[in-house]
From TrEMBL:
Protein name: Cell division protein FtsH
Listed InterPro entries: 26S_Proteasome_ATPase (IPR050221), AAA+_ATPase (IPR003593), ATPase_AAA_core (IPR003959), P-loop_NTPase (IPR027417)
EC number: 3.4.24.-
Entry's family note: Belongs to the AAA ATPase family.
Keyword Cell division recorded: yes
Organism of this sequence: uncultured bacterium contig00087
Pfam families according to UniProt: AAA (PF00004)
Signal sequence annotation: none
Ranges where the AAA+ ATPase domain occurs: 354-495
Protein backbone atom coordinates (compact mmCIF):
# COMPACT_ATOMS: atom_id res chain seq x y z
CA UNK A 1 0.00 0.00 0.00
CA UNK A 2 1.38 3.42 -0.96
CA UNK A 3 2.19 5.88 1.80
CA UNK A 4 -0.42 8.38 0.53
CA UNK A 5 -3.15 5.79 1.09
CA UNK A 6 -2.28 5.02 4.70
CA UNK A 7 -4.58 6.18 7.48
CA UNK A 8 -4.26 6.92 11.11
CA UNK A 9 -6.94 4.38 12.00
CA UNK A 10 -6.68 5.08 15.70
CA UNK A 11 -7.42 8.78 15.25
CA UNK A 12 -10.36 7.99 12.94
CA UNK A 13 -11.97 5.69 15.50
CA UNK A 14 -11.39 8.20 18.29
CA UNK A 15 -13.15 10.83 16.22
CA UNK A 16 -16.18 8.60 15.64
CA UNK A 17 -18.15 9.80 18.66
CA UNK A 18 -17.53 13.43 17.83
CA UNK A 19 -18.47 12.88 14.19
CA UNK A 20 -21.79 11.40 15.26
CA UNK A 21 -22.64 14.80 16.65
CA UNK A 22 -21.53 16.82 13.64
CA UNK A 23 -23.87 17.93 10.90
CA UNK A 24 -24.92 16.11 7.76
CA UNK A 25 -22.41 17.76 5.43
CA UNK A 26 -19.47 16.98 7.71
CA UNK A 27 -20.17 13.27 7.26
CA UNK A 28 -20.53 13.75 3.49
CA UNK A 29 -17.21 15.56 3.37
CA UNK A 30 -15.51 12.80 5.38
CA UNK A 31 -16.88 10.13 3.05
CA UNK A 32 -15.67 12.04 0.00
CA UNK A 33 -12.23 12.65 1.48
CA UNK A 34 -11.83 9.01 2.44
CA UNK A 35 -12.86 7.92 -1.08
CA UNK A 36 -10.25 10.22 -2.61
CA UNK A 37 -7.48 9.01 -0.29
CA UNK A 38 -8.47 5.37 -0.72
CA UNK A 39 -8.42 5.73 -4.49
CA UNK A 40 -12.11 5.01 -4.91
CA UNK A 41 -14.78 2.86 -3.35
CA UNK A 42 -12.95 -0.23 -2.15
CA UNK A 43 -12.27 -2.27 0.99
CA UNK A 44 -9.96 0.40 2.38
CA UNK A 45 -12.69 2.99 1.91
CA UNK A 46 -15.26 0.90 3.78
CA UNK A 47 -12.83 0.24 6.62
CA UNK A 48 -12.63 3.91 7.54
CA UNK A 49 -15.91 5.32 6.20
CA UNK A 50 -18.26 3.02 8.09
CA UNK A 51 -19.03 5.40 11.03
CA UNK A 52 -20.10 8.11 8.59
CA UNK A 53 -22.03 5.70 6.37
CA UNK A 54 -23.92 4.30 9.34
CA UNK A 55 -24.86 7.81 10.45
CA UNK A 56 -26.27 8.65 7.00
CA UNK A 57 -28.00 5.28 6.65
CA UNK A 58 -29.92 5.97 9.84
CA UNK A 59 -30.79 9.48 8.72
CA UNK A 60 -31.87 8.52 5.21
CA UNK A 61 -33.26 5.01 5.78
CA UNK A 62 -31.07 3.73 2.94
CA UNK A 63 -28.91 0.66 2.53
CA UNK A 64 -25.14 0.81 2.37
CA UNK A 65 -24.63 1.12 -1.40
CA UNK A 66 -27.46 3.67 -1.73
CA UNK A 67 -25.77 5.74 0.97
CA UNK A 68 -22.40 5.53 -0.80
CA UNK A 69 -23.88 6.56 -4.14
CA UNK A 70 -25.81 9.49 -2.67
CA UNK A 71 -22.85 10.70 -0.59
CA UNK A 72 -20.54 10.61 -3.62
CA UNK A 73 -23.05 12.58 -5.70
CA UNK A 74 -23.36 15.30 -3.06
CA UNK A 75 -19.58 15.44 -2.66
CA UNK A 76 -19.21 15.94 -6.44
CA UNK A 77 -22.07 18.43 -6.72
CA UNK A 78 -21.04 21.81 -8.14
CA UNK A 79 -24.43 23.21 -9.05
CA UNK A 80 -24.81 21.25 -12.28
CA UNK A 81 -25.85 17.73 -13.21
CA UNK A 82 -23.40 14.93 -12.48
CA UNK A 83 -22.78 12.53 -15.35
CA UNK A 84 -22.54 8.82 -14.75
CA UNK A 85 -19.03 8.91 -16.22
CA UNK A 86 -17.88 11.50 -13.70
CA UNK A 87 -19.35 9.48 -10.83
CA UNK A 88 -17.70 6.29 -12.12
CA UNK A 89 -14.31 8.01 -12.34
CA UNK A 90 -14.61 9.27 -8.76
CA UNK A 91 -15.57 5.82 -7.47
CA UNK A 92 -12.84 4.23 -9.61
CA UNK A 93 -15.47 2.01 -11.18
CA UNK A 94 -16.13 1.16 -14.79
CA UNK A 95 -19.27 2.91 -16.06
CA UNK A 96 -20.86 -0.51 -16.53
CA UNK A 97 -20.40 -1.27 -12.83
CA UNK A 98 -22.23 1.95 -11.89
CA UNK A 99 -25.03 1.05 -14.30
CA UNK A 100 -25.53 -2.14 -12.31
CA UNK A 101 -26.81 0.08 -9.49
CA UNK A 102 -29.56 1.77 -11.53
CA UNK A 103 -32.20 0.13 -9.35
CA UNK A 104 -30.56 1.68 -6.29
CA UNK A 105 -30.57 5.10 -7.97
CA UNK A 106 -34.27 4.69 -8.72
CA UNK A 107 -34.96 3.98 -5.05
CA UNK A 108 -33.07 7.17 -4.16
CA UNK A 109 -35.22 8.97 -6.72
CA UNK A 110 -38.39 7.62 -5.12
CA UNK A 111 -37.13 8.98 -1.81
CA UNK A 112 -36.89 12.39 -3.53
CA UNK A 113 -33.15 12.56 -2.90
CA UNK A 114 -32.16 12.98 -6.55
CA UNK A 115 -33.36 13.05 -10.16
CA UNK A 116 -32.22 10.57 -12.77
CA UNK A 117 -31.94 12.55 -15.98
CA UNK A 118 -32.22 10.49 -19.14
CA UNK A 119 -31.40 12.60 -22.16
CA UNK A 120 -32.49 11.53 -25.63
CA UNK A 121 -35.42 9.58 -24.25
CA UNK A 122 -36.40 8.50 -27.76
CA UNK A 123 -32.94 7.18 -28.56
CA UNK A 124 -34.42 3.92 -29.88
CA UNK A 125 -35.84 5.81 -32.82
CA UNK A 126 -33.12 8.38 -33.36
CA UNK A 127 -30.25 5.88 -33.24
CA UNK A 128 -28.57 7.85 -30.46
CA UNK A 129 -27.58 6.74 -26.99
CA UNK A 130 -29.28 7.40 -23.70
CA UNK A 131 -27.11 9.69 -21.59
CA UNK A 132 -27.70 9.21 -17.88
CA UNK A 133 -26.86 11.90 -15.37
CA UNK A 134 -28.04 12.89 -11.92
CA UNK A 135 -29.50 16.07 -10.48
CA UNK A 136 -29.80 16.81 -6.78
CA UNK A 137 -32.87 18.35 -5.17
CA UNK A 138 -32.08 21.57 -3.39
CA UNK A 139 -35.17 21.31 -1.18
CA UNK A 140 -34.10 17.89 0.05
CA UNK A 141 -30.50 18.93 0.65
CA UNK A 142 -31.71 22.00 2.51
CA UNK A 143 -33.96 19.81 4.68
CA UNK A 144 -31.02 17.53 5.43
CA UNK A 145 -28.85 20.50 6.30
CA UNK A 146 -31.48 21.81 8.72
CA UNK A 147 -31.98 18.39 10.24
CA UNK A 148 -35.66 17.79 9.46
CA UNK A 149 -35.50 15.45 6.46
CA UNK A 150 -38.15 12.75 6.44
CA UNK A 151 -39.13 10.81 3.36
CA UNK A 152 -42.83 11.17 4.12
CA UNK A 153 -42.65 14.74 5.42
CA UNK A 154 -43.07 16.09 1.90
CA UNK A 155 -46.33 14.32 1.14
CA UNK A 156 -48.11 13.31 4.36
CA UNK A 157 -51.26 14.91 5.78
CA UNK A 158 -51.21 17.79 3.30
CA UNK A 159 -53.80 20.50 2.89
CA UNK A 160 -55.74 20.27 -0.37
CA UNK A 161 -53.73 23.18 -1.79
CA UNK A 162 -50.38 21.55 -0.96
CA UNK A 163 -51.68 18.22 -2.21
CA UNK A 164 -52.18 19.73 -5.66
CA UNK A 165 -48.67 21.18 -5.52
CA UNK A 166 -47.47 17.59 -5.18
CA UNK A 167 -49.78 16.49 -8.00
CA UNK A 168 -48.16 19.14 -10.19
CA UNK A 169 -44.70 17.85 -9.27
CA UNK A 170 -45.82 14.29 -9.98
CA UNK A 171 -47.16 15.15 -13.45
CA UNK A 172 -44.43 17.54 -14.53
CA UNK A 173 -41.56 15.30 -13.44
CA UNK A 174 -43.03 12.54 -15.58
CA UNK A 175 -43.59 14.79 -18.60
CA UNK A 176 -40.02 16.08 -18.31
CA UNK A 177 -38.78 12.47 -17.99
CA UNK A 178 -37.31 13.13 -14.58
CA UNK A 179 -39.20 10.08 -13.33
CA UNK A 180 -39.84 6.77 -15.04
CA UNK A 181 -43.45 5.76 -15.54
CA UNK A 182 -43.29 2.95 -12.93
CA UNK A 183 -41.77 5.35 -10.39
CA UNK A 184 -44.48 7.90 -11.15
CA UNK A 185 -47.14 5.30 -10.43
CA UNK A 186 -45.41 4.34 -7.16
CA UNK A 187 -45.16 7.99 -6.12
CA UNK A 188 -48.82 8.52 -7.00
CA UNK A 189 -49.86 5.59 -4.84
CA UNK A 190 -47.81 6.90 -1.93
CA UNK A 191 -49.21 10.41 -2.33
CA UNK A 192 -52.77 9.11 -2.24
CA UNK A 193 -52.05 6.74 0.64
CA UNK A 194 -50.42 9.51 2.70
CA UNK A 195 -53.41 11.83 2.23
CA UNK A 196 -56.46 9.65 2.72
CA UNK A 197 -57.84 12.31 5.06
CA UNK A 198 -58.69 14.45 2.01
CA UNK A 199 -62.17 14.10 0.56
CA UNK A 200 -60.66 14.42 -2.93
CA UNK A 201 -58.47 11.36 -2.32
CA UNK A 202 -61.40 9.41 -0.87
CA UNK A 203 -63.44 10.18 -4.00
CA UNK A 204 -60.58 9.10 -6.29
CA UNK A 205 -60.06 5.84 -4.41
CA UNK A 206 -63.80 5.13 -4.34
CA UNK A 207 -63.81 5.00 -8.15
CA UNK A 208 -61.88 1.73 -8.03
CA UNK A 209 -60.09 2.41 -11.33
CA UNK A 210 -56.60 1.18 -12.18
CA UNK A 211 -53.40 3.19 -11.70
CA UNK A 212 -53.19 4.32 -15.33
CA UNK A 213 -56.70 5.77 -15.23
CA UNK A 214 -56.07 7.38 -11.84
CA UNK A 215 -53.01 9.16 -13.22
CA UNK A 216 -55.00 10.40 -16.23
CA UNK A 217 -57.68 11.75 -13.90
CA UNK A 218 -55.10 13.47 -11.69
CA UNK A 219 -53.62 15.06 -14.81
CA UNK A 220 -57.00 16.54 -15.72
CA UNK A 221 -57.36 18.01 -12.24
CA UNK A 222 -53.76 19.25 -12.36
CA UNK A 223 -54.54 21.14 -15.57
CA UNK A 224 -57.61 22.73 -14.04
CA UNK A 225 -56.34 23.55 -10.54
CA UNK A 226 -52.68 24.35 -11.15
CA UNK A 227 -52.72 25.67 -14.71
CA UNK A 228 -56.25 27.11 -14.90
CA UNK A 229 -56.82 25.24 -18.17
CA UNK A 230 -60.22 23.68 -18.67
CA UNK A 231 -59.34 21.52 -21.68
CA UNK A 232 -56.67 18.95 -22.40
CA UNK A 233 -55.68 17.70 -25.83
CA UNK A 234 -54.87 14.06 -26.45
CA UNK A 235 -51.23 14.90 -27.12
CA UNK A 236 -51.00 16.35 -23.60
CA UNK A 237 -52.27 13.08 -22.18
CA UNK A 238 -49.89 11.14 -24.39
CA UNK A 239 -46.94 13.09 -22.96
CA UNK A 240 -46.86 10.94 -19.81
CA UNK A 241 -46.13 7.81 -21.87
CA UNK A 242 -42.78 6.90 -23.39
CA UNK A 243 -44.20 5.79 -26.71
CA UNK A 244 -47.35 6.45 -28.74
CA UNK A 245 -48.07 2.72 -28.86
CA UNK A 246 -48.51 2.68 -25.07
CA UNK A 247 -51.15 5.40 -25.27
CA UNK A 248 -52.90 4.04 -28.38
CA UNK A 249 -55.45 1.84 -26.51
CA UNK A 250 -56.50 4.77 -24.31
CA UNK A 251 -56.69 7.05 -27.36
CA UNK A 252 -59.06 4.63 -29.10
CA UNK A 253 -61.27 4.33 -26.03
CA UNK A 254 -61.43 8.11 -25.68
CA UNK A 255 -62.26 8.68 -29.33
CA UNK A 256 -64.98 6.03 -29.48
CA UNK A 257 -66.49 7.15 -26.18
CA UNK A 258 -65.81 3.96 -24.21
CA UNK A 259 -63.08 5.18 -21.85
CA UNK A 260 -64.16 4.68 -18.24
CA UNK A 261 -63.77 8.36 -17.31
CA UNK A 262 -66.20 9.16 -20.14
CA UNK A 263 -68.73 6.48 -19.26
CA UNK A 264 -68.60 7.54 -15.60
CA UNK A 265 -69.25 11.12 -16.80
CA UNK A 266 -66.11 12.50 -15.15
CA UNK A 267 -64.76 13.91 -18.41
CA UNK A 268 -66.37 14.86 -21.71
CA UNK A 269 -65.27 15.79 -25.19
CA UNK A 270 -65.37 19.45 -26.10
CA UNK A 271 -67.41 20.88 -28.95
CA UNK A 272 -66.25 22.68 -32.07
CA UNK A 273 -68.82 24.30 -34.35
CA UNK A 274 -71.53 22.23 -32.69
CA UNK A 275 -69.68 18.95 -33.29
CA UNK A 276 -68.03 16.73 -30.68
CA UNK A 277 -64.26 17.23 -30.72
CA UNK A 278 -62.62 13.88 -29.98
CA UNK A 279 -59.14 15.40 -29.79
CA UNK A 280 -59.87 17.59 -26.76
CA UNK A 281 -61.46 16.70 -23.43
CA UNK A 282 -62.35 18.41 -20.17
CA UNK A 283 -63.68 17.61 -16.72
CA UNK A 284 -67.46 17.69 -16.45
CA UNK A 285 -69.09 20.25 -14.19
CA UNK A 286 -70.38 17.36 -12.08
CA UNK A 287 -66.85 16.03 -11.56
CA UNK A 288 -65.57 19.45 -10.53
CA UNK A 289 -68.46 19.93 -8.11
CA UNK A 290 -68.06 16.46 -6.58
CA UNK A 291 -64.28 16.18 -6.32
CA UNK A 292 -63.22 19.74 -5.56
CA UNK A 293 -65.48 20.52 -2.63
CA UNK A 294 -62.46 21.26 -0.42
CA UNK A 295 -61.23 23.85 -2.90
CA UNK A 296 -64.53 25.73 -2.98
CA UNK A 297 -63.34 28.65 -0.90
CA UNK A 298 -59.74 28.86 -2.03
CA UNK A 299 -60.17 27.94 -5.69
CA UNK A 300 -63.67 28.33 -7.05
CA UNK A 301 -64.20 31.68 -5.36
CA UNK A 302 -60.90 33.11 -6.50
CA UNK A 303 -61.15 35.73 -9.21
CA UNK A 304 -59.67 34.92 -12.62
CA UNK A 305 -56.40 36.59 -13.40
CA UNK A 306 -56.94 40.18 -14.51
CA UNK A 307 -60.48 40.44 -13.16
CA UNK A 308 -61.29 44.04 -12.26
CA UNK A 309 -63.55 44.51 -9.25
CA UNK A 310 -66.34 47.04 -9.65
CA UNK A 311 -65.43 48.48 -6.26
CA UNK A 312 -61.96 49.39 -7.56
CA UNK A 313 -63.29 51.52 -10.44
CA UNK A 314 -63.01 55.22 -9.71
CA UNK A 315 -66.02 57.39 -10.44
CA UNK A 316 -65.57 59.53 -13.51
CA UNK A 317 -67.90 62.08 -15.08
CA UNK A 318 -68.42 61.40 -18.76
CA UNK A 319 -70.21 63.61 -21.26
CA UNK A 320 -71.89 62.51 -24.47
CA UNK A 321 -74.09 63.93 -27.20
CA UNK A 322 -77.74 63.64 -26.19
CA UNK A 323 -78.55 60.60 -28.35
CA UNK A 324 -75.55 58.63 -27.03
CA UNK A 325 -76.36 59.63 -23.44
CA UNK A 326 -79.90 58.28 -23.76
CA UNK A 327 -78.68 54.93 -25.11
CA UNK A 328 -76.12 54.57 -22.30
CA UNK A 329 -78.68 55.45 -19.63
CA UNK A 330 -81.06 52.83 -21.00
CA UNK A 331 -78.37 50.14 -21.09
CA UNK A 332 -77.21 51.00 -17.58
CA UNK A 333 -80.77 50.64 -16.29
CA UNK A 334 -81.26 47.29 -18.02
CA UNK A 335 -78.07 45.91 -16.48
CA UNK A 336 -79.07 46.76 -12.93
CA UNK A 337 -79.17 43.45 -11.06
CA UNK A 338 -82.94 43.25 -10.45
CA UNK A 339 -84.01 44.36 -13.93
CA UNK A 340 -81.46 42.17 -15.68
CA UNK A 341 -82.56 39.01 -13.86
CA UNK A 342 -86.22 39.70 -14.70
CA UNK A 343 -85.39 40.37 -18.35
CA UNK A 344 -83.37 37.15 -18.64
CA UNK A 345 -86.22 35.19 -17.08
CA UNK A 346 -88.76 36.68 -19.50
CA UNK A 347 -86.52 36.01 -22.50
CA UNK A 348 -86.00 32.41 -21.40
CA UNK A 349 -89.75 31.86 -20.96
CA UNK A 350 -90.27 33.06 -24.53
CA UNK A 351 -87.57 30.72 -25.88
CA UNK A 352 -85.20 33.57 -26.65
CA UNK A 353 -81.47 33.93 -26.03
CA UNK A 354 -80.77 35.39 -22.59
CA UNK A 355 -77.32 36.85 -23.19
CA UNK A 356 -76.68 40.58 -23.55
CA UNK A 357 -74.06 41.33 -26.19
CA UNK A 358 -73.38 45.05 -26.55
CA UNK A 359 -71.24 46.82 -29.12
CA UNK A 360 -69.62 50.21 -28.50
CA UNK A 361 -68.23 51.61 -31.74
CA UNK A 362 -66.73 54.94 -32.66
CA UNK A 363 -63.56 56.94 -33.11
CA UNK A 364 -60.66 56.58 -30.65
CA UNK A 365 -60.92 58.74 -27.55
CA UNK A 366 -64.71 58.94 -27.50
CA UNK A 367 -65.04 57.10 -24.16
CA UNK A 368 -66.05 53.58 -25.19
CA UNK A 369 -63.83 51.69 -22.74
CA UNK A 370 -64.34 54.11 -19.86
CA UNK A 371 -68.10 53.92 -20.39
CA UNK A 372 -67.95 50.14 -20.01
CA UNK A 373 -66.05 50.60 -16.74
CA UNK A 374 -68.52 53.15 -15.40
CA UNK A 375 -71.47 50.91 -16.30
CA UNK A 376 -69.75 48.11 -14.36
CA UNK A 377 -69.29 50.39 -11.36
CA UNK A 378 -72.88 51.62 -11.41
CA UNK A 379 -74.40 48.14 -11.84
CA UNK A 380 -72.10 46.41 -9.33
CA UNK A 381 -70.57 44.10 -11.91
CA UNK A 382 -66.92 43.07 -12.06
CA UNK A 383 -65.11 43.16 -15.39
CA UNK A 384 -63.28 40.28 -17.04
CA UNK A 385 -61.18 42.09 -19.66
CA UNK A 386 -59.95 40.54 -22.91
CA UNK A 387 -57.50 42.55 -25.00
CA UNK A 388 -57.87 40.88 -28.39
CA UNK A 389 -55.45 43.08 -30.32
CA UNK A 390 -52.79 42.73 -27.64
CA UNK A 391 -52.81 38.92 -27.60
CA UNK A 392 -53.64 37.96 -31.16
CA UNK A 393 -50.03 37.21 -32.06
CA UNK A 394 -49.99 34.45 -29.45
CA UNK A 395 -52.96 32.62 -30.90
CA UNK A 396 -51.48 31.09 -34.00
CA UNK A 397 -51.38 27.35 -33.39
CA UNK A 398 -53.43 27.29 -30.18
CA UNK A 399 -55.71 30.18 -31.10
CA UNK A 400 -59.00 28.35 -30.99
CA UNK A 401 -58.26 26.76 -27.62
CA UNK A 402 -57.33 30.10 -26.10
CA UNK A 403 -60.56 31.70 -27.29
CA UNK A 404 -62.61 28.78 -26.00
CA UNK A 405 -60.74 29.04 -22.72
CA UNK A 406 -61.75 32.69 -22.34
CA UNK A 407 -65.43 31.84 -22.66
CA UNK A 408 -65.08 28.76 -20.45
CA UNK A 409 -63.61 30.92 -17.68
CA UNK A 410 -66.37 33.47 -18.14
CA UNK A 411 -69.07 30.79 -17.94
CA UNK A 412 -67.48 29.52 -14.75
CA UNK A 413 -67.52 33.06 -13.30
CA UNK A 414 -71.19 33.56 -14.19
CA UNK A 415 -72.06 30.25 -12.56
CA UNK A 416 -70.42 31.00 -9.22
CA UNK A 417 -71.01 34.76 -8.97
CA UNK A 418 -74.20 36.22 -7.53
CA UNK A 419 -73.97 39.06 -10.05
CA UNK A 420 -72.85 38.17 -13.56
CA UNK A 421 -69.62 39.98 -14.48
CA UNK A 422 -69.06 41.81 -17.76
CA UNK A 423 -66.86 40.15 -20.37
CA UNK A 424 -65.11 43.12 -21.98
CA UNK A 425 -63.57 42.64 -25.42
CA UNK A 426 -61.56 45.84 -25.68
CA UNK A 427 -60.27 47.06 -29.06
CA UNK A 428 -61.86 44.07 -30.77
CA UNK A 429 -61.25 45.33 -34.31
CA UNK A 430 -58.91 42.43 -35.02
CA UNK A 431 -61.67 39.81 -34.82
CA UNK A 432 -64.78 41.74 -35.79
CA UNK A 433 -63.55 42.70 -39.25
CA UNK A 434 -64.91 40.96 -42.33
CA UNK A 435 -63.81 37.37 -42.66
CA UNK A 436 -61.00 36.76 -45.11
CA UNK A 437 -61.14 34.63 -48.23
CA UNK A 438 -58.82 31.65 -48.03
CA UNK A 439 -56.33 31.84 -50.86
CA UNK A 440 -53.07 30.22 -51.78
CA UNK A 441 -50.85 32.85 -50.17
CA UNK A 442 -52.62 33.37 -46.85
CA UNK A 443 -54.23 30.00 -46.27
CA UNK A 444 -52.92 29.44 -42.71
CA UNK A 445 -53.50 32.88 -41.15
CA UNK A 446 -56.88 33.29 -42.87
CA UNK A 447 -58.09 29.91 -41.63
CA UNK A 448 -56.96 30.71 -38.09
CA UNK A 449 -58.63 34.13 -38.04
CA UNK A 450 -61.84 32.78 -39.53
CA UNK A 451 -61.87 29.91 -37.02
CA UNK A 452 -61.48 32.41 -34.17
CA UNK A 453 -64.34 34.49 -35.54
CA UNK A 454 -66.58 31.43 -35.89
CA UNK A 455 -65.92 30.44 -32.28
CA UNK A 456 -66.73 33.94 -31.02
CA UNK A 457 -69.90 34.07 -33.13
CA UNK A 458 -71.03 30.75 -31.69
CA UNK A 459 -70.17 31.82 -28.13
CA UNK A 460 -72.08 35.10 -28.46
CA UNK A 461 -75.03 33.13 -29.81
CA UNK A 462 -75.04 30.96 -26.67
CA UNK A 463 -73.99 33.66 -24.21
CA UNK A 464 -75.52 33.57 -20.76
CA UNK A 465 -74.20 36.80 -19.35
CA UNK A 466 -73.04 40.22 -20.52
CA UNK A 467 -70.49 40.94 -23.21
CA UNK A 468 -69.37 44.42 -24.18
CA UNK A 469 -67.10 44.83 -27.19
CA UNK A 470 -65.42 48.07 -28.21
CA UNK A 471 -64.25 48.75 -31.74
CA UNK A 472 -63.05 51.64 -33.88
CA UNK A 473 -64.39 50.00 -37.03
CA UNK A 474 -66.98 51.79 -39.10
CA UNK A 475 -66.77 50.36 -42.62
CA UNK A 476 -65.15 46.93 -42.23
CA UNK A 477 -67.50 45.38 -39.69
CA UNK A 478 -68.61 41.80 -40.35
CA UNK A 479 -72.39 41.68 -40.68
CA UNK A 480 -72.53 38.31 -38.90
CA UNK A 481 -71.19 40.00 -35.78
CA UNK A 482 -73.53 42.95 -36.18
CA UNK A 483 -76.55 40.63 -36.03
CA UNK A 484 -75.32 39.04 -32.79
CA UNK A 485 -75.24 42.29 -30.79
CA UNK A 486 -78.47 43.13 -29.01
CA UNK A 487 -77.39 46.70 -28.18
CA UNK A 488 -75.24 48.81 -30.48
CA UNK A 489 -74.16 52.27 -29.36
CA UNK A 490 -72.30 54.62 -31.71
CA UNK A 491 -69.92 56.94 -29.88
CA UNK A 492 -69.72 60.07 -31.97
CA UNK A 493 -67.22 62.82 -31.46
CA UNK A 494 -68.63 65.27 -28.93
CA UNK A 495 -70.42 68.34 -30.25
CA UNK A 496 -69.53 71.87 -29.10
CA UNK A 497 -71.89 71.75 -26.12
CA UNK A 498 -70.48 68.41 -24.93
CA UNK A 499 -66.88 69.52 -25.50
CA UNK A 500 -67.52 72.58 -23.35
CA UNK A 501 -68.76 70.38 -20.49
CA UNK A 502 -65.71 68.13 -20.82
CA UNK A 503 -63.35 71.13 -20.73
CA UNK A 504 -65.04 72.49 -17.59
CA UNK A 505 -65.00 69.10 -15.84
CA UNK A 506 -61.33 68.39 -16.52
CA UNK A 507 -59.87 71.90 -16.12
CA UNK A 508 -61.99 73.30 -13.33
CA UNK A 509 -60.45 76.79 -13.27
CA UNK A 510 -61.60 77.51 -16.84
CA UNK A 511 -64.29 80.14 -17.14
CA UNK A 512 -67.41 79.38 -19.15
CA UNK A 513 -66.21 81.79 -21.82
CA UNK A 514 -62.76 80.15 -22.11
CA UNK A 515 -64.27 76.67 -22.17
CA UNK A 516 -66.63 77.78 -24.92
CA UNK A 517 -63.68 79.24 -26.87
CA UNK A 518 -61.72 75.99 -26.67
CA UNK A 519 -64.77 73.85 -27.50
CA UNK A 520 -65.58 75.98 -30.53
CA UNK A 521 -62.03 76.28 -31.80
CA UNK A 522 -60.84 72.66 -31.49
CA UNK A 523 -62.84 69.65 -32.65
CA UNK A 524 -61.30 67.31 -30.07
CA UNK A 525 -62.46 63.97 -28.71
CA UNK A 526 -62.85 63.50 -24.97
CA UNK A 527 -59.59 61.54 -24.88
CA UNK A 528 -57.68 64.38 -26.49
CA UNK A 529 -59.16 66.92 -24.09
CA UNK A 530 -58.07 64.69 -21.20
CA UNK A 531 -54.51 64.62 -22.59
CA UNK A 532 -54.43 68.42 -22.63
CA UNK A 533 -55.84 68.62 -19.10
CA UNK A 534 -53.04 66.36 -17.87
CA UNK A 535 -50.45 68.50 -19.59
CA UNK A 536 -51.94 71.63 -18.04
CA UNK A 537 -51.66 69.99 -14.61
CA UNK A 538 -47.97 69.31 -15.25
CA UNK A 539 -47.55 72.95 -16.36
CA UNK A 540 -49.21 74.13 -13.15
CA UNK A 541 -46.92 71.97 -10.99
CA UNK A 542 -43.77 73.18 -12.74
CA UNK A 543 -44.66 76.88 -12.93
CA UNK A 544 -46.58 77.15 -9.66
CA UNK A 545 -49.52 78.87 -11.32
CA UNK A 546 -52.52 77.90 -13.39
CA UNK A 547 -51.94 78.10 -17.16
CA UNK A 548 -53.58 80.97 -19.00
CA UNK A 549 -55.90 80.43 -21.95
CA UNK A 550 -52.99 81.16 -24.31
CA UNK A 551 -50.96 78.38 -22.70
CA UNK A 552 -53.80 75.90 -23.10
CA UNK A 553 -54.23 76.92 -26.75
CA UNK A 554 -50.54 76.15 -27.30
CA UNK A 555 -51.08 72.71 -25.79
CA UNK A 556 -54.07 72.25 -28.12
CA UNK A 557 -51.95 73.15 -31.13
CA UNK A 558 -49.36 70.60 -30.00
CA UNK A 559 -52.10 67.97 -29.74
CA UNK A 560 -53.13 68.84 -33.29
CA UNK A 561 -49.58 68.25 -34.52
CA UNK A 562 -49.09 64.93 -32.71
CA UNK A 563 -52.51 63.48 -33.44
CA UNK A 564 -54.77 63.24 -36.45
CA UNK A 565 -55.73 66.30 -38.44
CA UNK A 566 -58.06 68.36 -36.29
CA UNK A 567 -60.71 70.56 -37.77
CA UNK A 568 -60.31 74.06 -36.31
CA UNK A 569 -63.31 76.30 -36.07
CA UNK A 570 -62.86 80.07 -36.37
CA UNK A 571 -59.69 82.07 -35.70
Amino acid sequence: MQETKEFDKTNRIQEHEENQKTDFFTHINEIGSIAKQAGGINDLFYEFAMPHLEYLQNRLSTNQIQTVLFACLIYLYNGDKITITRLANFMNYAVFKVLVYLNEFEILEQKRLLHIKREKEDYRYSGGHEQISFELRFTTIDALRKGYYSESAFSQQLSIEKFFVQVERLCEERVQRRQSYPNTIKNMRNLLKDNEHLLFVKKVKALGVNDDTTLVLLRFFHYLVNMDLSEMALYHLEAIYDHSSEFAPIRRLLQNGNYILLTEELIESTCSDGMSDTENFRLTDEAKDEFLVELEESFFNKMPKGMKLHSSIAEKNLFYPEKTQQAINELCSLLQSGYFDDIQKRLSENGMRTGFACLFSGNPGTGKTETAHQIARLTGRDIMPVDISGTKSKWYGDSEKMIKGIFDKYRSCVKRCDTAPILLFNEADAVFSKRRLIGENNNGPAQTENAIQNIILNEIENLNGILIATTNLTNNFDTAFERRFLYKIEFEKPDVKTRKEIWRSLITFLSCEDACTLASRFDFSGGQIENISRKSTVHQVLSGKAPALEDIIKLCNTECLTGETIRKIGF
